[in-house]
Amino acid sequence: MPTLIAKGATPLQREHLQWRTAVPGGRRLHCIVLDGSASMRRAGGLARAKGLADRLIADAAQAGDAVAVLGLNGQGVQWLLQARRARGADTAGLQRFGTGGGTPLRLALAQAQAWLQQASQRRAGTERWLWLLTDGRTLDTPARPTAAEHIVIVDFDDPRHPLGRAAAWAVPWGATHCAAAELDLQRR
């Protein structure tokens, strides 16, 4: 996935290749935060975000990593996939999750932070990843979740009328930012 993010919509070049040392035995924790606010209905944003979450879960399963999915919408924040090894993960909660209402992003990131801290204490030496799948359409200016060593913000902002909030968060967070449209192009 890092190579695809670095590549963007351009043809693959040597400098896009992202190498990382494989960590044996599933030594990564992935927390996927899925924005299901009403604005994510636009242009099929939530459906595309769910598809990406499925792909991230499958990648984690292949690596034997632990994964959790946290959904947020006007109903609040809920665990869609409880923290566990991704292999054989039940994604029914993810598929049933719908859009509506506001964006309790601060609350969701606080829960993700707590999970990453607790899980890393139980699994010493693990890499902690946070994946934020959002359009950034909130008035909150969330603080960086410090328990995450690696943060990837996948931005579902409307390219015709972009607000640029998710991109703005990425800078002080030291996060990787990519537009969802770039990932959609790479899947074709």
From TrEMBL:
Pfam families: VWA_2. It comes from the Bacteria. Signal peptide: none annotated. SUPFAM superfamilies: vWA-like. Residues 32-136 form the VWFA domain. This is VWA domain-containing protein.
